[in-house]
Amino acid sequence: MAINYNGDICVVLDTQHRTPGNLRAFVQATLRSIRTGKAADVRFSSTEKVEVVPMMTTKMEFSYKDGEDFVFSNPETYDTVTLLADLIGDDKNYLVENCTVTMTFVDDKAVSIELPPSVILKVIDAPEGIRGDSANNVQKAIVMETGITIQAPLFIKAGEKLKIDTRTGKYMERA
After folding, report:
1. Which of 40, 41, 56, 131 has the fewest CB atoms within 10 Å, i.e. the most exposed one?
2. Cα separation of 113 and 47, whole Å?
3. Residue-wise pLDDT tens digits, 101-139
4. DSSP string spanning 102-130?
């Protein structure tokens, strides 16, 4: 949800309803400003009104990385949107070319992306498993094409494609 707070449009990242002992109830919200990109914790009383700003979501494809920025394109209109690396955050570890994401816009400005539940990445570096290391579910650290290091079973070799869970960053299966 996006709201108008102190004349600035902010995206609500997290909310908690609190009722401390003998005080009145309030809502604690974490807001990120679209203009500055900074996040802040704000308390709203139960009688306070907030103005909700409409949000729009669109399916976009990751095209390429331009320096530190990430460029996405709309597969229907071929419009491009460039996002800064700090807005992408740790999601950059799962972005490969033509990966489809859901992008959220507020006032024609991209505010967040949502990755699919899993992505397929290629293994770049996988050390050989040592013979006799086959006790219960032994894992080894492997490096994927985006630079992320994950734990995977000993039988995985360099060049294979793996399905990775984007929420936990864990190995799911071979692709």
Report:
1. 131
2. 32
3. 888 887 777 777 888 888 888 888 878 766 665 666 778
4. EEEEETTEEEEEE--SEEEEEEEE-PPPP
